[in-house]
Design goal:
This protein is of the alpha/beta class. Helices cover 36% and strands 25% of the residues. Helix 5 packs parallel to helix 6.
């Protein structure tokens, strides 16, 4: 078995203190390998988004460690952590977050330019990434000239441009119809099959079925997991029944 690309070890996140303390995560451990898509499911308030924030270095754990490709995020200074996020991670959110005044290629190139890559070189890499994802026809379109599904696929390209090997998706199909959502998940699945590590937060079992592994959270604790995509519906039903 290869070394995991992403390792969360006994991660706990507590908001507030003393009598006002709220435990968002309680001793969660999770490994994600390159080429693997892991889905996290659970009811509202179960800690799904908190787990994604921990894995992506957007928030720091109260205790426990998070390691990406051998670098322990919990040991990094804020500037170094921001650099690691820019260069190695890509984030996909429900609301796309594309800049309206930029074309698809310019949106995809933006993270590279912010990291110091020359604009011309960044645009070439952006177009190459769009081409690999069969999105070249969108290169010169602005967000308001695209459908929601097209915008989300461009957001995936932006998350993967350059040397990023870890993509985190928080309910990326929430604003899309079912058919378009499936197309977006297919693109994400293909990128993981090509060697990217993926973490998908979702409340839809049919979306989790695209993953290699499904982890179910309740009250900040991992209560079950499965390595078989077709078991996602059963896992969701079991978790809801236990509430």
């Amino acid at each position: 078995m290869s070394t995991p690309h992403v390792v969360l070890t006994d991660v706990t996140r507590i908001h507030g203190d003393r009598n006002m303390a709220v435990v968002a995560l309680a001793g969660v451990s999770l490994d994600i390998h390159l080429g693997e898509l892991v889905a996290v499911m659970g009811p509202s308030g179960s800690g799904k988004s908190t787990l994604l924030n921990m894995a992506g270095g957007l928030d720091r754990p109260t205790s426990g460690t998070v390691t990406i490709a051998g670098d322990r995020l919990t040991d990094l200074a804020p500037r170094d952590l921001a650099k690691l996020r820019r260069r190695r991670m890509g984030f996909i959110f429900q609301d796309y977050n594309l800049i309206p005044s930029l074309t698809a290629a310019e949106n995809v190139a933006l993270p590279l330019e912010l990291d110091g890559t020359r604009a011309s070189q960044a645009r070439r890499q952006a177009r190459r990434t769009l081409d690999l994802m069969n999105l070249m026809e969108l290169s010169d379109r602005f967000p308001d000239q695209m459908s929601g599904g097209q915008q989300q696929r461009v957001a995936i390209a932006r998350a993967l441009v350059g040397s990023r090997r870890f993509v985190l998706a928080d309910e990326p199909t929430g604003a899309l119809d079912s058919h378009t959502g499936e197309e977006v998940l297919r693109v994400l699945r293909e990128r993981c099959d090509e060697g990217v590590a993926g973490l998908l937060v979702t409340h839809e079992a049919r979306h989790a079925a695209w993953a290699d592994r499904v982890v179910f959270l309740r009250d900040g604790v991992v209560v079950d997991s499965t390595g078989h995509r077709e078991q996602a519906e059963d896992l969701l039903a079991a978790g809801e029944a236990a509430r």
